[in-house]
Specification:
3-stranded antiparallel β-sheet, 287 residues, single chain, mainly alpha
């Protein structure tokens, strides 16, 4: 009897010990399963953020995963921006959605996203009736853009003159060599891009990415302005002025650097035909 009672107590104890273990197994998945759940949750958060940033969904037109829509949008926007900077796309050029979709092998939805981004950057204009066109800056806009550049870049070189290192001067010299080579071989798109990039390189050397991005946007708009108002400022002249600015920075001469940058930008403005003369009809038509 004593042995039977002991056996029963042992069985009850074993059952009691097993019950919490069974409950734990039910309530918590194995380690591998927990990791998978965690990974799915993380991916879900990342996807939600990406969707939120794009302002759309993650499905393509056929309901499947789109082939990197954000990347495609950026690629189209960058290609159009580069063509504007290199003066291959003229102000007023019509940008047909279907033609762009065929060129980049994407849907018109992706093209529309890129055009909306460029419109926010004021590089193109969108009209329900006329569609998308490369922007045609006004005289007042041209003046305002260069006024902002003068304020920003004067402060930029003033500060950079006090912090620039020998390695950074060498980097600028390398950029100037690329400029000179492009000017010499009459590479118009290449030299145009390099002459504009000089100003963003200065901002990057200062370590201010926000300033570099802002200058990049302003310089792209300046390319449109130069096309619109027929700048006669020669590439050779711009390059020579860049060399003088770097010479002043290398000497840590902040005052000279500011003076040279102001003069450089003023020369660009002076060579824009912002105040075209109204022709005398008699003089034009009589002869």
């Amino acid at each position: 009897m004593a042995r039977t009672a002991a056996t029963k107590r042992t069985a009850r104890s074993a059952a009691a010990a097993q019950r919490p273990v069974a409950a734990e197994v039910v309530s918590a998945p194995p380690a591998r399963k927990r990791a998978a759940v965690s990974q799915r949750a993380t991916r879900s958060k990342v996807t939600s953020k990406a969707i939120s940033k794009r302002g759309g969904n993650a499905l393509g037109k056929n309901g499947g995963p789109d082939a990197a829509p954000a990347t495609s949008t950026a690629r189209i926007a960058e290609s159009i921006t580069t063509a504007i900077v290199e003066r291959r796309l003229m102000p007023g050029t019509k940008l047909v959605e279907q033609k762009l979709a065929d060129i980049f092998k994407v849907s018109r939805t992706i093209v529309r996203q890129a055009l909306n981004q460029l419109s926010r950057d004021q590089l193109i204009t969108l009209s329900p009736a006329r569609g998308a066109h490369v922007a045609t800056p006004s005289v007042e806009e041209a003046r305002q853009v260069f006024e902002v550049r003068q304020m920003l870049e004067s402060s930029l070189v003033k500060r950079l003159a006090t912090t620039i290192t020998a390695d950074q001067v060498a980097q600028l010299r390398a950029h100037l060599a690329d400029e000179a080579a492009a000017v010499q071989r009459i590479d118009v798109p290449g030299r145009t891009r390099l002459l504009a990039d000089f100003h963003t390189v200065l901002a990057q050397l200062l370590g201010n990415q926000a300033l570099a991005q802002l200058l990049g946007d302003l310089l792209t708009r300046c390319s449109l302005i130069a096309l619109m108002f027929q700048s006669s400022h020669s590439a050779e002249h711009s390059h020579a002025e860049h060399v003088a600015i770097v010479d002043a920075l290398e000497r840590h001469d902040a005052r000279a650097a500011v003076k040279l940058m102001d003069a450089h930008l003023q020369h660009v403005i002076d060579n824009l035909q912002l105040d075209p003369r109204v022709p005398d009809l008699v003089a034009v038509l009589k002869g």
